[in-house]
Amino acid sequence: MELVFVYGTLRKGHGNHVLLKNSQFIDAGLTKKKYAMYANGIPYVNEDEEVSSIFGELYKVSNHTLRMLDLLEGHPSWYERKKITVIGGKKRYKAWLYFNNTKDGDLIESGDYERR
Question: What is the pTM of this model?
Answer without folding.
Answer: 0.95
